[in-house]
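Researcher: Here's the sequence for the chain we discussed earlier.
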Amino acid sequence: MLDLLIPLSLAAAFGALLGSLCRLTRWPGRERPLLFPLVGLVAGITAFFIHLVLNWVTGAPAWWLPVLVVLQVWLWLGPLGPRRGLGRHRK
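Model: Thanks. This is the structure I predict for it:
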């Protein structure tokens, strides 16, 4: 159990750190600053489970986990992430 819990917590912390760094570099969505670390946290957890499945199916190496976390954070905060002006009505 501990051999899964430590990498999971490290992937989540790394994702939250990357989300915070994206916030500090002023990506779009500055109106909701807490969203960035939370999305990074969830992206890190998701990347861990994706890596777990890839490792079980194909024997993926351990260095893929940080790459997957970076890709998940970029994807969720970049192209699929928060947009400026969401929820505002345009006239």
